[in-house]
DNA sequence: CTGAAAGCGCTTACAG
DNA sequence: CTGAAAGCGCTTACAG
């Protein structure tokens, strides 16, 4: 409703409104302006002065300068999130969760590396030069973490195996992997292939390990040579599958478990091209349960991971740390579940 | 290779290394440290002093403090990108392009609103409080733009109809829309429905207008009541289509043109549920050509928009503005093209 | 309750 | 080529 006001107050060539200008306008000191602007008036600013300052702030269109404020306070109000691959829709959901929990008091700065890459030491230093209020690191690399040690509030996401040292929100990928193995075993599969991701993040290792363990326990096996790995890319996954399939077929493979839905899309695509019947000749599964998995043909059986919740919980934990609170539960684990669809329907 | 070094220099409890500390270590003034750290030594710092400072910087692990630097320079090295919906894979690609052009000299701060929402005036002010080096605004709203007026380097993305006032990189959506209309006309369609997006961004208006115009010219029509609109969401699009289809069918509709691929996924999904044969009974098309459109079943005919390039070009233009250069071509337009797939195959 | 003043870390005329 | 000093805009003890 005040959009026309705003347009006027931010007319071209207008100089930035500073606390000093507000102070002069209100007839008080900049200290008082700061107190009022930050809502720290209780017992420190008279009601009369508060009203005057509030009025001046509105009239002049004053906004606290983040830079000056940050320098003075020693930290910025920026939360930096380090994520390995923003093009993965899974991360988009994680980020949405982070944003919703962070609200408008903190700015979210996304530090994204290229697919499959880890942030360099130089990148890290530069990030810390921004004096973030807190750090969120998704699917971290251990060496990267050491470089960040003791720099302030830090919460990891999807970082299994980092012990109790650092607060983290993890996904119980293992449960979903076990359900997946049980589902495939029940459908009569005995030889399965595994198409892995290769960002080198622990989550892929965990998915693979948990599945292989459960599969073995259920009498299934991944024969020698029935493993492949690509970055998270439909096309590359399709290529890898195309190359491997003749041999896999010979080895009696009847199911391909993919580390991500994106990999699985590649397999589905190539299978269609190659005339491989899904799920009749080959069952295909993924992890992540991306939105499109319900819409592929056939629908993709996938381990659902609660991406949005992951982001939300991590940001909530971080907010507590920033506020100096202790975390009752520094290590959170969120459930995963298996979504069964047409790509593994019983024959 | 220096990761172990880094770990040591960032050991717990270590105080931040300041330019003053470097100056003392090197036996020079902070002015000299600043010059060296910023690579502005030519003709201003002796080779001997430069070497000494460089050595001290390395030994102490000094990094310029962004906050102090920004306050002093009056601007930060942050580029803020305002985008309406990060969960749309299209934007993920745009962002990737921006990042690749920006390099490591500028931090990319994503300001994302919730799906279908525009940034509020308060959001805008807060953004400007960060003193960005430049602003990238994707699919802007005119009123939002006015609030930003004259605040520094600014480049719009996908902002048709803003005239010559502001530098922008646009997509020639109209060309793709015309190709699409021609394709449908050639396949014999005469009555088509239009499923629109409702973020209120001009790009959707343009897609719709361009298509309708070309369709009309080719003898096709969109009957009364054969238009619907939802936010960019598979489920909502599916619902809207489910509700509208009985009537559309009665009206003789044989094709649904969707404003985004995401909308089209919803139509495909609902069509499968409802047993509508695609493309036999109904042809379906989208805009964006998302990665999954090649993999849906049937494959989705879609107008390809060069998302990554859009981001890259916009960031390149912004960089020029930041460096005080003039833009030879303040208005860039990138080509679109039609990708024909199974969802519109000839009957 | 209030304001003068110091200080956050840097950059940049300015004088030498 | 070099350094002392002012200044960016804010916050926070501190003295009153």
UniProtKB/TrEMBL annotation, chains A, B:
Does this UniProt record's set of keywords contain Transcription regulation? yes
The family database entries (InterPro entries) matched by this protein are listed as:
HTH_LacI, LacI/GalR-like_sensor, Lambda_DNA-bd_dom_sf, Peripla_BP_I
PROSITE patterns the UniProt entry points to:
HTH_LACI_2 (PS50932)
Q: Where is the HTH lacI-type domain?
A: 17-73
Keyword field: DNA-binding, Transcription, Transcription regulation
* Superkingdom of origin: Bacteria
Q: Which GO terms describe its molecular function?
A: DNA binding
Where is the chain membrane-spanning? none
- Specify the protein name: DNA-binding LacI/PurR family transcriptional regulator
Which organism was this protein described from? Paeniglutamicibacter kerguelensis
């Amino acid at each position: 409703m005040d959009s026309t006001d705003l347009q006027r107050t931010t007319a071209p060539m207008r100089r930035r409104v500073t606390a000093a200008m507000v102070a002069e306008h209100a007839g008080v000191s900049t200290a008082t302006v700061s107190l009022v602007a930050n809502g720290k008036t209780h017992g420190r600013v008279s009601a009369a002065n508060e009203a005057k300052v509030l009025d001046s702030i509105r009239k002049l269109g004053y906004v606290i300068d983040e830079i000056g404020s940050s320098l003075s306070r020693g930290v910025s109000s920026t939360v930096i999130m380090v994520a390995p691959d923003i093009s993965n829709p899974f991360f988009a959901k994680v980020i949405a969760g982070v944003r919703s929990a962070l609200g408008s008091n903190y700015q979210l700065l996304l530090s994204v590396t290229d697919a499959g890459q880890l942030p360099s030491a130089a990148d890290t230093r530069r990030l810390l030069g921004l004096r973030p209020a807190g750090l969120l690191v998704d699917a971290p690399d251990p060496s990267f973490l050491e470089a960040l040690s003791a720099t302030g509030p830090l919460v990891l996401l999807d970082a299994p195996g980092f012990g109790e040292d650092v607060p983290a929100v993890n996904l119980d990928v293992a449960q979903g992997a076990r359900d997946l193995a049980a589902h495939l075993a029940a459908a009569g599969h005995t030889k399965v292939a595994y198409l892995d991701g290769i960002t080198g993040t622990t989550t892929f290792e965990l998915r693979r390990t948990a599945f292989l363990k459960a599969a073995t326990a259920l009498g299934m096996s991944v024969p020698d040579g029935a493993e492949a790995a690509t970055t998270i890319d439909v096309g590359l996954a399709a290529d890898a599958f195309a190359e491997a399939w003749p041999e896999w077929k010979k080895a009696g493979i009847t199911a391909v478990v993919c580390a991500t839905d994106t990999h699985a899309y590649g397999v589905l695509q190539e299978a269609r091209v190659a005339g491989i019947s899904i799920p009749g000749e080959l069952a295909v599964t993924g992890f992540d349960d991306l939105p499109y998995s319900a819409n592929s043909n056939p629908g993709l059986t996938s381990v659902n991971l609660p991406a949005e919740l992951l982001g939300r919980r991590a940001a909530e934990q971080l907010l507590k740390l920033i506020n100096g609170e202790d975390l009752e539960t520094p290590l959170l684990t969120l459930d995963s579940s298996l979504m069964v669809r047409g790509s593994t329907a019983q024959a």
